[in-house]
Amino acid sequence: MYRVLFFLYYISFFLQDVWQGTQLLAVDVVAATGLLRRALTGDELTEKEKKALKRTLTDLASVVPIGFLMLLPVTAVGHAAMLAAIQRYVPSLIPSTYGSERLDLLRQLEKVKEMETEAVNTKDNSEE
């Protein structure tokens, strides 16, 4: 029974990481589209913008093989094992938006936003 609960708990975190990584990738694609549009119209991109554009294009290229592996008919445990092996032996294949650094940063940002919302709500309630 505990194994099943632990497994479900682990899978829920895994799915949350996948969802948040996909959201980050979508944000990066939108930003990269704007940068690419600027570059095509003749504007000079800064080094930081060039680096972000390159990272996003690399991430998009690596989503294809990872997506293919996730579509293979394997159990959830098999997918988790595949991803763990890829992260250990070929970490550059994992898109940066699914990396722990960016996901941790996103979680910290969400906590700050939540604390700001609570502070505004507390302030509004105290004024009433």
UniProtKB/TrEMBL annotation:
The keyword Transmembrane applies. The keyword Protease does not apply. Keywords: Membrane, Signal, Transmembrane, Transmembrane helix. One of its GO terms (biological process) is intracellular monoatomic cation homeostasis. The chain crosses the membrane at residues 63-86. Residues 1-20 form the signal peptide. One of its GO terms (cellular component) is mitochondrial inner membrane. This is Secondary carrier transporter. It comes from Lithospermum erythrorhizon (Purple gromwell).
